[in-house]
């Protein structure tokens, strides 16, 4: 999670943190579709649903904690941006469980969806931004910001920061 202010030309990173949205105490929660693929369908569907519900609770908790931290520092949280995948609709659960590549795709979509759900539940405006739509010039520009804020400044943080600035500029 990366919280930003300003613009891509005058950027400020307010907060960076790793958020956990898979319960390490819940078996199969890190890769629920992989775990479900080994089960009879009724058990598989129940495991996936349990993982979704657990991840939603964790995402809501993580988002609330981040918002509270930012507000305690007198920052307004205007919007949330979540990086999205390709956008191709997923097939039925039966078809997902029968295809190893779709297991990965479904897990990525699930975790993105729980973040969007948490923003909606928190009544914070949100947008999903496709990774392919990130501005290459902005991505290049943001690389140098890592020197100012210090490590780590990973690719996922850079992408998240650019998505956040894009959402912030649309919000204004």
Point out poorly predicted stretches: none
Rounded average pLDDT? 93
> Approximately how much beta-strand content do the residues carry?
5-15%
From the alpha carbons, calculate the radius of gyration and give it in angstroms. Answer: 17 Å
Class computed from helices, strands and strand pairing: alpha+beta
Query: Helicity, in percent?
Result: 40-55%
| Named CATH topology | Putative cytoplasmic protein
Look at the structure and give the CATH class: Mainly Alpha
Total beta strands: 4
How would you explain this protein's 3D organization?
This protein has 7 helices and 4 strands. Strand 1 and strand 2 form a beta hairpin. It is about 55% helix and about 10% strand. The radius of gyration is 17 Å and the shape is globular. It has a single domain, classed as Putative cytoplasmic protein. The longest helix has about 30 residues. It starts with a strand and ends with a helix. Helix 2 packs across helix 4 and helix 5 crosses helix 7. The mean pLDDT is about 95. With about 170 residues, it is α+β, with helices and mostly antiparallel strands. It has a two-stranded antiparallel sheet. Strands 3-4 form a two-stranded parallel ribbon.
């Amino acid at each position: 999670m990366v919280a930003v202010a300003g613009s891509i030309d005058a950027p400020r990173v307010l907060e960076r943190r790793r958020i956990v949205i898979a319960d390490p105490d819940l078996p199969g929660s890190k890769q629920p579709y992989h775990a479900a693929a080994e089960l009879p369908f009724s058990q598989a569907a129940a495991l996936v649903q349990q993982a979704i519900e657990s991840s939603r609770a964790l995402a809501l908790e993580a988002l609330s904690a981040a918002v509270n931290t930012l507000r305690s520092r007198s920052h307004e949280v205007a919007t949330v941006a979540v990086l999205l995948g390709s956008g191709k609709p997923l097939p039925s659960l039966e078809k997902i469980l029968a295809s190893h590549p779709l297991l990965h795709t479904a897990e990525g979509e699930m975790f993105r969806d729980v973040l969007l759900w948490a923003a909606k539940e928190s009544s914070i405006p949100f947008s999903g931004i496709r990774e392919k739509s990130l501005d290459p010039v902005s991505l290049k520009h943001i690389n140098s910001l890592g020197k100012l804020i210090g490590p780590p400044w990973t690719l996922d943080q850079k992408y998240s920061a650019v998505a956040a600035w894009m959402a912030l500029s649309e919000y204004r």
